[in-house]
Structures are given as structure tokens and as C-alpha cells.
Amino acid sequence: MAKSSTKKQKIKKEPKKDWEMIEYIDYLDDPRKQKAANILAYSGYRPDQTVRGAITSAARAVGVNRMTIYEWLKEEKMQTAVSEAKAELCAMALNGLRELVKEKNFGACAFLLERLQPEQYSQQHKRMEHERYMFELEETIKSKLVDNQTPPTIIIEAPQLTKDYDRNKLD
Fold first, then answer.
1. pLDDT in tens, the chain (171 residues)
2. In Å, how far are 51, 85, 104 from 58, measured between CA atoms?
3. Rounded Cα distance, 52 and 48, in Å
4. Residue ranges of the domains in the chain?
5. pTM of the model
């Protein structure tokens, strides 16, 4: 029996199209630039920070080299287009969030409360408050110690086990 050699061909995957084109960016003369501006906005591109894959995704989607995207981003019109697309995207997201809150979606409500009043609802804020309290407590204890004396040990006794759960008895 002769072995048949089959080579696996790499299939180029098209980028997911789970984003909606923002059409009003008509002042860009090239439709590829319009599409790239939308993709950059959806991917969270910021000129002052590196967002992994944003430039590459935009370049692949419009069929140009990554360097071309960087060149386009030097143009003021392109920068404005990305900013406007982001603003539109934020407005769409807020409208969607508003609708979910109206429908009493717990996740949306929790998200909104954490953002609007983090001191009251944010778990991260509460954790930071706890860490600050523990640090201040530790510093207070250190300041009360004389000559690097070891702090007193606080012993908290666990409640006694009931007869039913006595570990020494085997039934």
C-alpha cells in the first residue's frame, strides 16, 4: 500500500465582522481608510498606548500593509475619523447599556453602579480600602513597638466541634 501524502493547507480566516460600520466618516477619500478607522475604533486603538493586534487587524481587513496604516494615522483626517468612530461607538454602547438597565439586567446594573459610584459599589475600591486599612494598622503597631520588639501574637480560638463532628471518633 502506498501512502498518500496529503498536505494541510492553511486557510486564511477573514476577520470577524461583529462590528458595525459607522458610515458618516465620508470625509475620508478612501473607503479602505473608513473601514480601517472603524476597525481601529472597535479594537480600542489609542495613539499613546499599544493595543495588541489593532493595527494588524485593520491592515488585514482592508488589504494593506501595517506600515500603510501607520502612515494613514499620521494624517489629521484619519486621527479625527478614529476619534469620531470611537465617540459613536461609546454612544452606541451607552444606549445599549441603558436598555439593559431598563430591562433590569443584573450584570448591566452592577457594571453601571461600579462605574458611577465606585466608592460604594466597586469590589476593587473595597479591596483597596481594606489594604489601606491593613497597612495603616500595621504601621500603627510598628510605631508602638519599642526597640524592634516582636509584636504580640493574637490568638483566636476556633469554636469547639460538636459531638457529631468529633474528629477523634470513627463510626
1. 455 555 555 544 454 455 566 665 667 888 899 899 989 988 888 887 777 788 999 999 999 999 999 999 999 999 999 988 888 888 888 888 889 989 988 888 888 888 778 777 777 777 777 788 888 888 887 777 766 666 666 655 555 555 544 444 444
2. 12, 14, 36
3. 13
4. 31-98, 104-145
5. 0.53
